[in-house]
Amino acid sequence: MTRIPLRPLARILDARTKGENPDTIERENLRLRHEQMRDKSRGRAQLRLVVLALCFSSAYGLIGARMGMLAATQPVEPRSASASNEIEASRADIVDRNGRVLATNMLTHALYVQTRDLIDPAHAAHELAQIFPDLDEKTLLRRFTDGRSFLWVKKVLSPEQMQKVHEIGDPGLLFGPREMRLYPNGTLAAHVLGGATFGAEGVDSAEVIGTAGLEKFEDARLRDPAQAGTPLVTSLDLTVQTTVEEVLQTGMTMMNAKGGAAILMDVNTGEVISLAALPTFDPNDRPANPVSGDPSESPLFNRAVQGIYELGSTFKIFAVSQAMELGLVNPDTLVDANAPMRWGKFKINEFEGHNYGPLLSVADVIAKSSNVGTAHIALMIGGERQQAFLRKMGLFDASPIELVEAKGAKPLLPKRWADIVTITASYGHGVGGSPMNLASAYATIANGGIKVTPTLLKRTTPMQGERIISQKTASLAVGMMRRVVTEGTASLAEVPGYFVAGKTGTAEKPKKGGGYDHDKVVNTFASVFPANNPKYVLVVTLDEPVETTGPKPRRTAGWTAVPVAAEIVRRTAPLLGLRPQLEASTLDGVTAVKQ
Amino acid sequence: MRPLLYVLSFLAVMGLGFWAYRENYTTQDSLSEVSELQDEIANLRESLTVQRAEWAYLNRPARLRDLATINFDRLGLLPMEPSQFGTAAMISFPPPAVKSSLDLNAPQAVSGVLNADPEGTTP
Hints:
heterodimer, A: alpha+beta, Penicillin-binding protein 2a (Domain 2), Beta-lactamase, 2 domains, 5-stranded antiparallel sheet, 19 helices, 18 strands, 37% helix, B: mainly alpha, 4 helices, 61% helix, elongated
């Protein structure tokens, strides 16, 4: 736009010559300029108004259209875009490491009664009592007629029972769908699975909640609708678990034990391949929790995790491993083993009053299971270092395994760690732990000294734990345990081809009034196999066993827990895919040096 | 010209109305078919769950063990043992291939006598 000057010279001069006032020209030009400016700003303002109006109308239009759509469409139940498994299985399955079902759901029905709709309450009560022998006709009739309008009769019906109830034909008898937790393998791995029950109940559905074991520990995961379609994969192997339970049951009967536990663990991953505790129960029909008496007498008691026992001589390998790690001893160092040993007012004896002394090599202390020798080694280490080591091994804390019972089973420890505790703890007395604690500690040694955390869930990567003892110490310790089997207290554990290494432990049970009961023992055998390349740890514990084939009853682990463990190794190792090694490839350092 | 336009647009409106009417019912049919299919899928899934549970129940180790015991004379199944592992050396190798001087790419006239017991010739 060209800007016109207010006083164009040509027109001014022209006006002056005509005798007109040149100011009128200036005013005229000024007016024109103002008009131009006014038109321009009006145009702008109008444009702004239009844009604003457009914005508002589109926004209101959108809202209006949405409201119209909502008002015009018919209300429908929201349904998922694709019918998926989640709608059916509200609780995820539990499977073993190979995908075989351990726990699943089944659709059944619950029976309830709307008493208003009952035509003939007496007839219905009579027929129901015929179908369900556990129901009483009189009680049913009383409940049908005492004024209530609604009552549950049965929580779970079988299809046959449901058909029979249908045949009564009373409109007051109604069915509500129920998802029932089913354990198809019966008592197998009952202590791991725990059990489930109905939580909040409605007519159309009821929630299933875990009551014990893995079901309770992983309850949130199992009920998570987002993960309902993917089963929870455990580390258990169904076949191995069956075999372990079978052998343990037979062994328990033969050894007249009142209970037993066995744990088979992969040392590289910490996976528990099998966890058996006997006596057992059927999780489909879980007995009620005991309200009186000793809870450890109940079949619900998981001896492998909840059983806190003095684990006896199985602890000796920890003292010896630590002493070797600290450089205090090596397998050939001679230590004082002169029994009985006196410490203050205490007297430390060997089993059956033996004396392996005066001097015994460290390897022989383990092989012969010398209390006095271990006590001297423990005194060399000292109480504080011993406690720190046992704590790092996980023997002072409840096992982190995924069972709800494990949290409550804290190892029993003395309040004050006096020197006498240092001595007794070195051979597993005065401190208590669960077989699961022991299995993880042995797995740590067998895993070349890297800490193993036990798990019941499938894990494919090896343990990435803290190193607690060096590879060299660990292999020396395994070598010593191998000697326990070849020439020590666990000679019955020899399984040709599998190089079982282990340590026996016999602990007398504390009496109620104090002191120890000589006729009631807990026998433990903690083993590692194959010794030349440890892959599995097996801990077998028998509660109050006694072996009666000899002239007098034998209660040492070497006669009870060891043969049971050997049979478990013999039966399960092939199932685990371990091929027997017919010739010794590389013998461990200790044995090679000793022979 | 204009009346024709009116008639044509009226016909077009009628046609569109008819089309919309039909589309509406097809959609409703499809929706009900979808919900029927979803019900069917749900039912099939349910029976799948039941059958899976039944499979697991029938294959429970205790039952298989009992069946193996009952049918021992026919099956001869025993628990797995370390001695059942074999080595590769225990398997007999197939007989070495016959070396031939013939050109196998060209057609050959071959004649021979069939052995009555072909198994007997292999070690």
